[in-house]
Structure formats: structure tokens, C-alpha cells
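Batch manifest, entry 17 of 40.
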Amino acid sequence: MMWEQTREGAGTTMPGGDQEPGSYYVGVDVGTGSVRAALVDQRGIILAFADQPINRWEPQFNHHEQSSEDIWAACCVVTKNLRETCWDKAGHFFDLPDFLSWKATGVTARSLCSLVCKWTYSAEKGWDDSFWKMVGLEDFVADNYSKIGNQVLPPGASLGNGLTPEAAKDLGLPAGIAVAASLIDAHAGGLGVIGADVRGYGLACEGQPVTSRLAVICGTSSCHMGISKDPIFVPGVWGPYFSAMVPGFWLNEGGQSVTGKLIDHMVQGHAAFPELQAKATARCQSVYAYLNSHLDLIKKARPVGFLTVDLHVWPDFHGNRSPLADLTLKGMVTGLKLSQDLDDLAILYLATVQAIAFGTRLIVEAMEAAGHSLSTLFLCGGLSKNPLFVQMHADITGMPVVLSQEAESVLVGAAVLGACASGDFTSVQEAMARMSKVGKVVFPRLEDKRYYDKKYQVFLKLVEHQKEYAAIMKGD
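Output type: C-alpha cells
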């Protein structure tokens, strides 16, 4: 933003001609007797106005003086007053799940999941006044945090008297149906898979606490949800958050910024993608089902994963969320050739899927080093429907992967909350154990372990080298 001096006073303008839809602008006019400011939308309509007098001195007849400091202070006052005018009118600030709960019930109570994971709320200590004052949002402290939530409920708790008559009419449901305190979507996915009864599948987690399970919700990006009875602090992994997913347990949340999005990016950006599209369409297959079958065709006698023996990918094309927590990291590919045919595309796709699985292994190792004890992955989300993605996660982590009977585990998790709020179950833990079902178990090919251990060593070298390159370029 730059200040543009005009004959009338000072106005703020945006550089360039393009404007984001829904943007607003502050115009400031410094006059002789006052500073005025207006909030203006892209249509040129003034939405709010404020003014503030400025001092003038007349030390002798026909001599006038003003203070630049006083003028700046007046500019600050009118700008703040504008904010307090688009700001003071707001009755409540909601995260989306809590907004939907409010629309359904009229209850302003917030979910512990939303506030703990996104709003800096502590399940043990509540809000921290000093934080909001430090970031200039001390308004939130007023009235016992009424605008952002002073009634906080655990996921699955029943809200008020259930659906209001108005919401019931809109939804086509009877009034009074129980509505549960909500979860963030990825957390609902974790709830929908992590509690399944695994007896009879020969899994290491059978008979072990639920804390031995890691839920991986994998779609455009991926989240890795692990719970513990006591708080565990894992460098580069979010949390621990108390009762943010399963009541009574601490949650650690790892993540990968781009997973499904990265696979799409690598495949769709390849020169052979139009050929792939045409062949997949001719077979009435998705491009990924076609690529998986093509990999089986070209692997010959070797395991399919061995096709990437000299092609390696570091997957942080959008920075690293966990466990390195470094947004400056970039993606890397080593082992490229001049050829750009369908075989090359399929192998690059495989190497990308493997890189994502190696990223999961890195997160698992960080969690275990900090005190978690994990033995089984529970996958859900769009990528869990891809058998290659699932098998690579099993092979590369060395852990069996459990897939749910119901593919839409996020919806099952949300229904678990509703079941708990209805009173049909005594706890979220009971509801998720009854409603989560195992659909399939994929075991790792342990005979390929040595190969993937070698590739993992290369994987770690890639990021080590990237940091060395960055240090060289930043040096004198």
C-alpha cells in the first residue's frame, strides 16, 4: 500500500490495476481542522466514516501552526474508529464448524476441537489474555470472551435443545433432533477410523491401547493423527491438544502440505499427460487406475517399487509442515532423462507416491522419537482409494495399513458425534468402537525392506543437500 498525496489531502491506493473481489479500501483526508477517513468498497460506496479534530496554534496574529505528530495521531484514531465501526458490529466470530452448529441450534457454544487447534485456546487453562493483547485483538477479552466463545464443549456433547424449528424446516428434519459439538474435518476422519475393532486380522495393534494407532487422512493434503494418554511434545508436529479429537486423550497432528495436489501436479504437468488421458478415457478408467495398471505392465519380474531405483523425489513443493516445519523448502527430483513417454510419466508418478510415503515415515519416526509407540496406520480420504498409494505406505513405513469398510470415514466420524449426542452411546469411545469397521488390511512386503531403507537414505540426503545449497547461495 502506498500513500498518494493529492490536492485534497492524502489517500491510500493499491498498486496495480487488479483488485481482489471483496476488497475494501481506506481513504484518509487531512484537512485544516480535522482528519477524516472512509471505508470504501470496490464499487466506490462508502461503508463507514470517521473524523477526528486536529489542533491548531496561533502564536501571533495571522501565524498558524500545526503538529505533525498530532496529525499522525488523528490519522491513527480515525483508522481505528473505522475498524471498530466494520468490527464492533460483529456479534460473534466463529470457526466454520461452530458457525454451522450455531445455525442449527442457536447455541453459541464452541467446540473444544476448533478452539484448541485453531484459536490458541487451552483445554486446561482457557483463554490467554496476554496473547490477544499482544496481537492487538484485546477486544476479544471483553465480556469474558463472549465474541469468540466462553462456553466450550468437547466433541460429541449435545448442544442446547437440538435443532431449532427454523433449522429443522430448512433441513427437512424434525425439530429437537440432537446436534453434537463438532470436529474439524480431518479430525472427524481420524475419529471415523481409529477406533475400529481389529480382532481377527493378525494386527500388532490388537490388544494394544488405541494410542498404538496412527490415523492418516490423505486427500489434497494429509494429516497424521496420533493420540496419547499423557501430553507428548513432538518437534515440528502440532499439539499436544487435550480432547481435540478423542475425549480424554492428547492429540498430536502431523501433516504434509500437498499430497493429492502434488500427485496431480506431477502427472498433469508431464508431456505425456494428453496421451494418458486419451488412453484412460478409452478404457473408462481414471488416469490413476490406468497408471497403476501400466506400472504393473512395465515392471516385468521386479516388484513395482523397484522401478524408481534411480529416480528420487523430495515432495515439499509447498514447504514442509511436519516434522521439519520449514516453509522455505522446495520440491526436488533427481534422475530425470530426456525421454518423456508414458513409461517415464508412470515412473515419475510412482516416485512421487513413494516420496509422500517417505514423508509419512519421517513423521512417524519423529513421533516415536518423542515418546509415541505406533504399530498400525489407519488410512482414509481420497488417496486411500488408490491401492498403489496404500501399498507404498505399508512397504515404506513397514506397518500394516487398515482401510475402513466405509470409504467416507469423515462422514462416519461426524455421525459418531451425533450418535454420542443422541444419548445412544455413553461415550465417543464406545460409539467409534461400534460404528468404525475394518474393510481391508494391507500388509507390508517385508522382503522389499532393504530396498526402501536405501531409498529412504537418499530421501534424507535430498533435504540435507537442499539446505546446503541454500547456505551456499546465502553466503558471501
